[in-house]
Design brief:
Length: 856
């Protein structure tokens, strides 16, 4: 016997479970790709070429970065440009105004550094809390003549070169400036003389700050400098050629003592201090809770030239490390730099500015945030990288995403008015702000692609990073395990969605809803990711989970199609190939519908009268063609009335209603189907007579009652069918039609349940062998409203039948005879003959009018 439906249902569920499990596994694989993010160090390998095993992760990351930009712009639209950071730019307007004013000092580039120092001093005078000079000065200034800027601030008596005057102006506003250094390999360092045969003692000091200042002075003379420990003190030595050279050096430093000179030996070589060493010592920061080995390592640094390295300024890197697609989305706040003795940690320029602003000496890394003193903190990963929160959706010219922008000409005008002693109008735009002084001209070409624009000025990027630090804001990328979980969940959701909605693919509208379901889930996740980014500044992966969702959705759809085909084949093997798609769908959703059970059903049997004679007259191919045409029409009517075609038995048709699909109108639907089948036979009769020379007469029996329904058969062949007394009576009613001359006979239960939509007439009362009681049988005449011309005959027949059951056989025969003569009623003819017999041989006193037909 075939496997029972429950086993096939279990198999289907197991396959569904397999699909979901496979989806979860696939999601985990995608999630692992998302989990093991492409290290930023891998983005910068030789030529930008990634190793083959990184390409898939790189591709996903590049797509992810595009979704990041979309979210960053959405956050920018919901934000207000920061007002605590300002841009002061040397822009085209400044150059044009300087040329018109015929100011030779600033009409051309590069500007004298004394002018830059004067601008810094003037901005501080206007109320700026801190000025970041976004420019690199690794080489000596080409300007030799002093301008009037220094004199404006009391430096006219200092006989200094341009670099030293710049440094002096910065020192005049201590701790109010931050200078930049780079990690690029640039050959702009000061030329240092070769090793000289002697060294001279410059000074012996106790503090490091004094040491740094003396080293700066020595290096500014382009001599080699040494810092040699001597007990608790540090001795600063300088290379000299001779004793006279040493006296001149000391005199330039204001020292009148006799020089201490000794030959240079290899013992002092480890204590040599280069300009880069001095810059590292001035810029270095100490971070608690962070492993310096995890920071990106700078091979070299390009500091300001030694004359500019003072202890009263801060120093930070202005390196812009782009992402895979060349766009800048964050800033590297911490770098590692190795000297001959140890590993140093160097800050970015924005971080150095924040430390000056907060008066913080140390940094603490804890719980994914870098804490700057007790007031500021910012999200940062263990490699020292922070994502920038952009406070605008688009870059607005030179200001980028900042709220305040001034042309440097505005400050120069103030500076000139101060030098000329003219009344000055305060620049309120700079009051209590951190100012980024930058070169915004097209000559510098310092523009970077960012999420808010393809040409965002570098100074504006630095300014936005400073604003993030001052507000303790930033973007947090969720831990990789969260992205992994999101990929697994969406993979599972894609598989589950495909399994649940696969039934919709049978129509165009359903297919649209099916695909719409995928987009709804994907769109919902994208909305969630955007909400998380805009409202909570958290970046969760979008592309990886969406790839997992779409992939498992497609793969599970293919699996669902294959599974559905197997289920459909199983249903067809149980219910037959003639089962309607609607029935098949319902059974596929609920295999309990075809489990063996006792249920009330309406059973239909029909048979072709004289089919044996017809079969003998037709050729084999004609006979098969006739049956195929006939069965096709009968099947269509059964399916159209929600019935189940049980089987064909030769020329006979057996159909069920209320099984396997329950339907409370099963009796009415069976009656409607029987009338339709009769109408089809009448309509096609001329065609069949013309083609096959045969007249088709079909007679049917319908009965309603309890029966056992289910999948019945052997392991060789089985089918869904009904078994029971109700089925036997339907078959007997079909056979009884010939005796009464009727076409459709129905049992009493069918008449009771069919409702008032049909016209029935009682035909007889019969006792079926084995039945506990007699059965009233009825002829299905027509639908209500379609038998008006027969009403008179039906009423006459009913009166005659009443007289018959009252044992008034003479009166009954008279009225039955009238039905025959007037209405040509074949059932009445049967009763005329029966009345004659009963008149000749009266029945016993307990006669109940029940007829006992012979067994079929």
């Amino acid at each position: 016997m075939q496997k029972p439906p429950g086993s096939s249902a279990g198999r289907f569920l197991r396959k569904s479970g397999f699909a979901l499990g496979s989806a979860a596994l696939f999601g985990a694989l995608i999630g692992l790709i998302v989990y093991f993010r492409v290290p930023r160090a891998e983005w910068e390998d030789a030529g930008g070429k990634l190793r083959w095993h990184l390409r898939l992760r790189t591709w996903l990351e590049e797509l992810e970065l595009r979704t990041y930009d979309w979210r960053a712009r959405a956050l920018g639209r919901a934000s207000q440009p920061p007002r605590d950071v300002a841009i002061v730019a040397m822009d085209e307007e400044t150059l044009v105004a300087a040329a018109d004013a015929r100011d030779p000092g600033i009409a051309t580039q590069p500007w004298p550094r004394e002018v830059v120092g004067g601008l810094v001093r003037e901005m501080v005078e206007e109320g700026a809390r801190l000025v970041l000079v976004d420019a690199l000065y690794p080489a000596l200034s080409p300007h030799a003549c002093a301008s009037r800027v220094g004199a404006t601030f009391g430096l006219d008596d200092l006989e200094l070169d341009d670099d030293l005057r710049f440094r002096a102006l910065l020192d005049s506003v201590p701790d109010k400036s931050v200078l930049a250094f780079s990690g690029d390999r640039e050959e702009h360092h000061l030329h240092i003389q070769p090793l000289l045969p002697r060294i001279a003692l410059v000074e012996q000091v106790e503090s490091r700050e004094e040491t740094y200042e003396l080293l700066r002075k020595v290096l500014a003379t382009r001599r080699r400098a040494f810092s040699v420990p001597e007990g608790q003190r540090l001795q600063v030595w300088s290379g000299v050629e001779s004793e006279d050279d040493a006296r001149r050096l000391l005199a330039s430093f204001g020292a009148a003592r006799e020089p201490v000179i000794r030959p240079r030996t290899d013992e002092v070589a480890p204590w040599e201090v280069t300009p880069a060493d001095l810059a590292v010592a001035l810029a270095e920061v100490h971070v608690e809770g962070l492993n310096p080995e995890a920071l990106p390592l700078l091979d070299t640094i390009t500091p300001p030239n030694a004359a500019l390295l003072g202890t009263k300024s801060g120093y930070g890197a202005v390196l812009m490390r782009p992402d895979l697609d060349g766009a800048v989305r964050g800033i590297q706040h911490l770098y590692a730099y190795r000297t001959r003795d140890r590993l140093h940690v160097l800050p970015s320029m924005p971080l150095a500015a924040a430390m000056r602003w907060a008066h913080a000496d140390t940094l603490v890394y804890r719980d994914g945030r870098l804490h700057i003193g007790g007031a500021l903190s910012i999200p940062m990963d263990p490699s020292g990288y922070s994502l920038i929160r952009w406070d605008a959706a688009e870059s607005d010219g030179g200001r980028g995403s900042l709220g305040t922008y001034l042309s440097a000409w505005s400050v120069i005008r103030q500076l000139n008015d101060r030098a000329d002693g003219k009344p000055m109008r305060p620049l309120r735009e700079l009051e209590d702000k951190v100012v980024i002084f930058t070169d915004g001209t097209s000559q510098r070409n310092d523009f970077r692609a960012t999420p808010i624009g393809a040409l965002t000025p570098g100074g504006a990027i630095v300014g936005q990073a400073v604003a993030n630090l001052l507000r303790s804001e930033g973007i947090v990328r969720v831990p990789p395990k969260v992205d992994l979980l999101a990929a697994v969940v969406l993979a599972f959701a894609g598989a589950l969605l495909a399994l649940l909605l696969s039934g919709l693919l049978r129509s165009a509208v359903g297919a649209a809803l099916y695909v719409g379901g995928l987009f709804a889930v994907g769109g919902g996740y994208v909305w969630f990711a955007r909400f998380l980014f805009v409202e909570h500044q958290q970046w969760i992966a979008v592309v990886g989970p969406l790839v997992a969702l779409g992939s498992t959705f497609v793969l599970t759809t293919v699996h669902a199609f294959r599974t559905e085909r197997e289920v459909r084949d199983f249903i067809f093997s149980v219910l037959g190939r003639s089962v309607s798609p609607e029935v098949a769908r319902k059974v596929a959703r609920d295999f309990d519908l075809i489990r063996p059970e006792r249920r009330e059903v309406t059973v239909y049997f029909s048979d072709l009268e004289g089919f044996t004679r017809i079969a003998e007259q037709l050729r084999a191919d004609e006979l098969v063609e006739l049956l195929q045409t006939y069965f096709a029409e009968m099947t269509r009517q059964v399916r159209d009335t929600s019935g189940h075609l049980d089987k064909f038995i030769g020329d006979a048709v057996m159909a069920l209603w209320n099984a396997p699909n329950p339907n409370p109108r099963h009796a009415a639907l069976a009656c409607e189907s029987a009338l339709r089948m009769r109408e089809v036979v009448e309509r096609m009769q001329p065609e069949w007579e013309d083609r096959f020379g045969a007249r088709i007469v079909a007679r049917a029996g319908i009965n309603t009652g309890d029966a056992v329904v289910g999948h019945v058969g052997s392991h060789v062949q089985a089918a869904y069918t009904a078994i029971g007394r109700a089925v036997n009576l339907a078959a007997r009613l079909q056979g009884a039609n010939r005796a009464y001359g009727t076409f459709i006979l129905a049992g009493e239960a069918t008449v009771d349940r069919a409702g008032d939509g049909f016209v029935f007439r009682e035909v007889d009362r019969i006792r079926v062998p084995g039945a506990p009681k007699a059965e009233r049988i009825f002829e299905l005449v027509a639908r209500k409203g379609e038998a008006d011309e027969r009403l008179a005959g039906l009423e006459e027949f009913a009166g005659a039948l009443g007289a018959y059951h009252q044992r008034d056989f003479a009166r009954a025969m008279e009225r039955f005879a009238a039905c025959v003569s007037r209405f040509n009623d074949p059932v009445a003819a049967v009763y005329v003959a029966r009345c004659r017999t009963l008149i000749a041989t009266p029945p016993p006193a307990d006669w109940d009018g029940v007829f006992e037909p012979p067994a079929p």
